Amino acid sequence: LPDYGVFTFVSNWYYWFTTTDIGTIADYRLLGTAIALALTHHIILPFRFPYLVYCKILNLLIRLRDLEEI
């Protein structure tokens, strides 16, 4: 699968942030706003993130095994 701007596809399972300087802070903020709005309105997006991202969004405790996934 191709990479999409601020994300890269990792190990055929999930998307993670790119390590290159492709996006600006405004790009990440816009993307975060769009994802937050989708989650708020129960809209399913075709993104697969590691569990760590969902813990951060929901303000849950992040454990060592969550970090091991990435």
Description of the structure:
By secondary structure, the chain is of the alpha+beta class. Helices cover 40% and strands 11% of the residues. It contains three helices and two strands. It has helices spanning 25-40, 51-57, 64-68, and strands spanning 7-10, 14-17. Strands 1-2 form a two-stranded antiparallel ribbon.
Sketch the topology as an H/E string, one letter per element. Answer: EEHHH
Separation of termini? 18 Å
Number of helices: 3
Biggest sheet, strands in spatial order? Answer: 1-2
Number of strands: 2
Beta fraction of the residues? Answer: 5-15%
Radius of gyration: 13 Å
The SS-based structural class is alpha+beta
Return residue spans where pLDDT drops below 50 for at least 5 consecutive residues. Answer: none
Report helical residue fraction: 40-55%
What summary fits the major beta sheet? 2 strands, antiparallel
Average of per-residue pLDDT values: 77
Oligomerization state of this entry?
A: single chain
- General form: globular
Question: What is the fold's blueprint, element by element?
Answer:
Elements: E1 7-10, E2 14-17, H1 25-40, H2 51-57, H3 64-68
Antiparallel strand pairs: 1-2
Short précis:
Helix content is about 40%, strand content about 10%. With about 70 residues, the chain is α+β, with helices and mostly antiparallel strands.
